[in-house]
Amino acid sequence: MPIPTDTNLPPRGLTGGVPADGTLVQRESLRSLAKGISLFRLTYISQGLQVKGYLAVPDAIMPVPGLIYCRGGIRKVGMVRKRRIFSMARRGYAVFAPFYRGNEGGEGREDFGGEDRFDVHHAITLMQSLPEVQSGLVPLIGFSRGALMALLAAKECEGAGLIVVWGGVSDLLDTYEERVDLRRMLKRVVGHPRKQAECYERRSPVCWVDAIRVPVMIVHGTADVQVSVEQARKLGAALERAGKEYKMELYDGLGHRFPKEDDERALDAIFGWITSKRERVEVRDR
């Protein structure tokens, strides 16, 4: 099946003249520096907003499995790196990485796991509609703040598949305490941790692991100074108490971002786990 290269697509899924959430409204072919991988910038609808993201597709017999990469950071900090999604696409997956609302020409304003979580929810719908992506549940990899986005999808979206939490935030109140440099942003975007504690709890997976319906893999460097490894251990302990299926891999001495060789080693482990689990989860949820 050839990969579509349309630059403007007619809206699908119209409801009263307004494109439905998850509708693809534009596909722009971009130059790819990765051999054997095609790159696109997609625009889709999320809560009536036009949101953008990168899609990397391996040159293979279509369709291929789909996967969503949830970036960390906020706004320009932690923006999606093409090299990151190329590394994932080389493992045989069509990888979509939403920028979240308000970024790279997208509409709206992101809010760190609040309303912008719907940008991931509707990215799942988008992926399930793409002709080059296999049908079924869509796995998600959440890096840093992106872990909140991925786990919120696992809590709230039937289409969410396996979840990988990589260097992930699991308790936003802990992040507020750990990261003095983020406190001003968190107060502005989320609220005061005492006055609006519920806003932090809604974004903290350790508070609602009972609602997570799919297996979770936790990957973390023990020397991470941006998101403490204790957040990984805290999430693992919560999943254990809740009787949820999970796997934890801690990388001794590594920080928030892994060196290239270790990064590839971690990706091998992650995609090995996803591949081994994906078929069983699909069969169970049919």
CATH third-tier fold name: Rossmann fold
Q: What shape does the CA trace take?
A: globular
Percent of residues in β-strands: 15-25%
**Could you name the CATH class?**
Alpha Beta
Order of helices and strands: EEEEEEHEHEHEHHHEHEH
Kindly report the oligomeric state of this protein. single chain
Describe this structure as you would to a colleague.
With 286 residues, this protein is an alpha/beta fold. The chain has a single domain (23-285), classed as Rossmann fold. It is built from eight helices and eleven strands. It has helices at 82-89, 117-129, 146-156, 172-178, 183-189, 197-202, 229-241, 260-284; strands at residues 14-15, 18-19, 24-30, 37-46, 49-58, 66-70, 94-98, 138-143, 160-166, 216-221, 246-251. The strands form two sheets. Strands 3-4-5-7-6-8-9-10-11 form a nine-stranded mixed β-sheet, with helices on both faces. The longest helix is centred in the C-terminal third of the chain and has 25 residues, at 260-284. The relative contact order is 0.11.
Name its key features.
8 helices, alpha/beta, two-stranded antiparallel sheet, globular, 286 residues, 9-stranded mixed beta sheet, Rossmann fold
Brief account:
With 286 residues, the protein is of the alpha/beta class. Helices cover 31% and strands 23% of the residues.
Topology of this structure?
Elements: E1 14-15, E2 18-19, E3 24-30, E4 37-46, E5 49-58, E6 66-70, H1 82-89, E7 94-98, H2 117-129, E8 138-143, H3 146-156, E9 160-166, H4 172-178, H5 183-189, H6 197-202, E10 216-221, H7 229-241, E11 246-251, H8 260-284
Parallel strand pairs: 6-7, 6-8, 8-9, 9-10, 10-11
Antiparallel strand pairs: 1-2, 3-4, 4-5, 5-7
